[in-house]
Write a structure and sequence with these properties.
The chain is of the alpha/beta class. Helices cover 29% and strands 24% of the residues. The chain is built from 16 helices and 23 strands.
Length: 558
């Protein structure tokens, strides 16, 4: 068996023990199909947050969870558990074009929205941003990783400054170093760079775009960052976002560094070393940005089964129920982004997983089934849950997320989004082996897929969490058919109106995946184990910081 997390003798014993003694429950493919067909119908209008379509979806989920045998698991109102958790969202749009002036030692540099720079609408709570001659500082990769002995800031005060940082992390160029090689850590993700800058009081961030380390081109950056921005409504938004968040073209960065008497490639090479020192770029930014903001409300839907012995400890299954909604018509005039695979399939699994648990032996720990909203706006439903947990994160055993499951039949393998090293994956690998299946790692770990699904906000808070992905090595047709189907879906249906339910789909693969995920969740729900991250994980220290909350007496365990 593959020991992916490599966590020592205790973990070996943990994984070697069978996780579920009873026979795997049955899952009805016809019932799974009906759920997908229903919530991806045109009448649901693409399930965008704060729309009639989302209201219909929330009502459907509430009925489905109740019919499955769950109890309400949402927020408390007047001492009573509800089925939902309200998720307030901040919507922000730039009014007009940002007024930008970049002055260097060699003279002014042009900055036009969407061309040399992509400026995001502010989500730090401000409706206007006014920067006057804010100095620019090159901060390497913008990383502070104490567990790796890495600090790009070296004690420099960055308050009021614009940080110019590189995308990805220091190992990307060479494939080796302190960050695990090509696989992106969270330190390489653009969201981390904004968060770290805000934590240090910077005035703003310019992330230097390069296609290979970003894993997408400038068009993606432009389209993703110059439109409407969303965030959860935060108690202190300035702690998460600087006033000025942006990306700049590589050519602009080269010119900026040249004007300061620096070679961009040499500066990048220096940033790959631990002894890197921040560099004054001898330039300033003056910026004026106005925004129109409003608050919308989305919903998470939660059902739960209380544990018989340790109800305060929870195992959570998640899936997002939202999609893109109604947009511009495609070549066929279709404007509804139905989101059948993404993520009608994950929602269908969540409902039927709940049914399987409710009809089986009562678990010793509580099991929560959480359908989150606003994933397509930036994982915001799960982000809000983590900021306002319904159940303590320190006593959340693990999170199993499903996002876009396989509709092409059974597979000989399975995968997860991105790369992670944790005992939760070891458990999945062990259970899959009992099905005669193997684990296939993400083929492009440098793209940072781990950070793009709803398990990630939990991981960032230290909770062991993964997002399950179906395998491509299909029982019928093998890897060739699986990869062809995946490529066809990505090209023709992913985030397009043609992501619609089909009567030709084969749900037998989701059935087998559901049995695998059930075995892992059941094993966790009926044990007193606390799976953890690997010692070198960027999430380990956060989890270990709450270890005292998980120490209970024998009497408390029942």
């Amino acid at each position: 068996m593959l020991k992916f997390a490599l966590l020592g003798a205790s973990a070996l014993a943990l994984v070697a023990t069978p996780l579920a003694a009873q026979t795997a429950p049955s899952f009805d493919p016809a019932r799974l199909s009906r759920h997908v067909q229903t919530i991806s119908a045109d009448s649901y209008e693409g399930r965008a947050p704060a729309t009639r379509g989302e209201t219909m979806t929330v009502e459907y989920l509430t009925r489905a969870f109740r019919d499955a045998g769950l109890q309400p698991g949402g927020e408390m109102i007047d001492g009573k558990r509800q089925w939902t958790q309200r998720v307030p969202l901040l919507k922000s749009d730039i009014v007009g074009a940002p007024q930008l002036s970049l002055t260097t030692a060699g003279g002014p540099l042009a900055l036009t929205q969407g061309e040399q720079i992509s400026v995001r609408a502010p989500t730090n709570g401000q409706q206007s941003v006014r920067l006057s001659n804010a100095p620019l500082l090159f901060a390497g990769y913008g990383v502070a990783a104490p567990e790796r002995g890495w600090d790009d800031f070296k004690g420099q005060d960055v308050k009021g400054k614009i940080l110019v940082v590189l995308i990805n992390d220091p190992d990307f160029e060479t494939g080796q170093g302190d960050f695990g090689g090509k696989a992106m850590t969270y330190y390489g993700r653009w969201t981390y760079k904004y968060e770290e800058a805000a934590k240090r009081g910077a005035a703003g961030v310019m992330i230097v775009h390069e296609t290979a380390p970003a894993s997408y081109g400038w068009a993606t950056v432009k389209n993703s960052n110059t439109n409407t921005m969303f965030d959860i409504v935060r108690a202190n938004p300035a702690a998460e976002h600087t006033p000025f968040e942006s990306w700049i073209q590589r050519d602009t960065a080269v010119a900026l560094f040249r004007a300061a008497g620096l070679d961009f490639e040499a500066a990048k090479a220096a940033a790959r070393r631990k002894d890197f020192q921040p560099v004054d770029l001898k330039a300033t930014l003056t910026a004026t940005t106005d925004a129109k903001t409003e608050t919308l409300t989305s919903d998470n839907v939660a059902g739960m089964l209380p544990g018989t012995k340790r109800p305060a400890e929870t195992v959570i299954y998640t899936a997002h129920h939202d999609h893109i909604g109604v947009g511009a018509p495609d070549a066929n005039g279709d404007r509804i982004f139905n989101g059948a695979v993404d993520n009608g399939t994950g929602v269908a699994h969540l409902i039927e997983q709940a049914r399987a648990f409710a009809r089986g032996p009562k678990p010793q720990r509580s099991v929560v089934f959480l359908s989150v909203g606003a994933e397509e706006k930036g994982l915001l439903g799960s982000e809000y849950y983590v900021a306002n947990p319904l159940y303590p994160l320190s006593k959340t055993v693990g999170v199993l997320n499903t996002d876009s499951m396989g509709v092409w039949g059974r597979a000989r393998d399975f995968s997860i989004s991105g790369t992670a090293r944790l005992e939760l994956l070891d458990r999945l690998i062990a259970e899959a082996a009992r099905q005669g299946r193997t684990f296939t790692p993400d083929p492009k770990p440098e793209a940072g897929g781990f950070f793009r699904s709803d398990h990630f906000p939990f991981a960032k808070a230290g909770v062991p969490a993964i997002s399950f992905k179906p395998g491509n090595n299909l029982v019928t047709g093998g890897l060739a058919r699986g990869e062809a189907a995946a490529a066809d879906y990505t090209a023709k249906r992913y985030h397009q109106p043609d992501d619609e339910w089909s009567s030709e789909w084969d749900f037998s693969g989701i059935v087998e995946d559901a049995q695998l995920l059930h075995a892992v969740g059941q094993g966790l729900a009926n044990s007193d184990a606390w799976p953890n991250w690997s010692d070198d994980s960027e999430f380990r220290s956060v989890r270990d910081g709450s270890a005292a909350d998980r120490v209970v007496t024998k009497g408390e365990r029942g």
